């Protein structure tokens, strides 16, 4: 019972409702010659079993088995979460590629060349990264020269860049911007606004 009491204390300290995980019940058991007797018992949730294993004696086979089981399950969950995060990042990166292609297409339609597009995107990055240029960020993150910065950014920043791109794309059409100066001003504003949202969160 000492181990269970420790597990209950751990449960309570974790701000969990003890009775939700350690349900005290009674059950009838055979005591011989057809007679039955009522005894106290506890129904445990998976979480309660984990707490008992953590507070038990690992020299006991059952506790050692439980400890190993929960360690394996925890590692599986960590790997699953890691893969989900990687998948989410890849999805965000693909979406960013689409919004960048749309932005470049709109810019080229206005008669602005590749160099102009590069300047616009670079100034947008500088606004998003608080004054740091694309090259500054590549150096900071150790990005190889032959790779793009976005391949090494965290998911939230990739989504921020995409959101700023989408705002610029919408407003280029809405306001019919035609010059590099106007588009740059718009793109810088959108990246600055998105940076402000990130800093507030």
How would you describe this protein?
- This protein is mainly alpha-helical.
- The protein folds into two domains: 2-56, no CATH class; 84-200, no CATH class.
- Helix content is 70%, strand content 10%.
- It is built from eight helices and two strands.
- It has a two-stranded antiparallel ribbon with strand order 1-2.
- A hairpin with a 2-residue loop joins β1 (22-32) and β2.
- The longest helix is centred in the middle third of the chain and has 49 residues, at 61-109.
- The radius of gyration is 29 Å and the shape is elongated.
Tell me the domain tally.
Answer: 2
Structural class: mainly alpha
Proportion of residues in β-strands: 5-15%
| Shape designation | elongated
Model regions low in confidence, pLDDT < 50 over at least 5 residues:
none
Give Rg in angstroms. 29 Å
Order of helices and strands: HHEEHHHHHH
Tally of helical segments: 8
Query: Can you give the mean pLDDT?
Result: 92
Helix % is: 55-70%
């Amino acid at each position: 019972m000492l181990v269970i009491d420790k597990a209950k204390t751990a449960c309570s300290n974790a701000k969990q409702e003890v009775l939700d995980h350690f349900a005290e019940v009674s059950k009838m058991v055979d005591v011989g010659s057809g007679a039955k007797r009522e005894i106290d018992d506890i129904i445990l949730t998976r979480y309660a079993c984990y707490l008992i294993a953590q507070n038990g004696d690992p020299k006991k086979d059952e506790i050692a088995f439980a400890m190993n089981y929960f360690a394996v399950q925890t590692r599986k969950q960590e790997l699953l979460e890691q893969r989900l995060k990687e998948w989410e990042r890849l999805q965000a990166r693909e979406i960013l590629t689409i919004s960048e292609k749309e932005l470049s297409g709109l810019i080229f339609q206005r008669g602005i060349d590749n160099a102009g597009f590069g300047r616009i995107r670079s100034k947008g990055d500088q606004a998003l990264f608080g004054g740091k240029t694309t090259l500054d960020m590549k150096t900071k993150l150790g990005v190889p020269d032959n790779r793009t910065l976005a391949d090494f950014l965290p998911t939230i920043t990739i989504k921020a860049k995409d959101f700023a791109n989408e705002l610029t794309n919408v407003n280029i059409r809405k306001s019919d911007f035609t010059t590099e100066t106007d588009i740059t001003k718009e793109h810088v504003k959108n990246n600055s606004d998105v940076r402000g949202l990130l800093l507030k969160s």
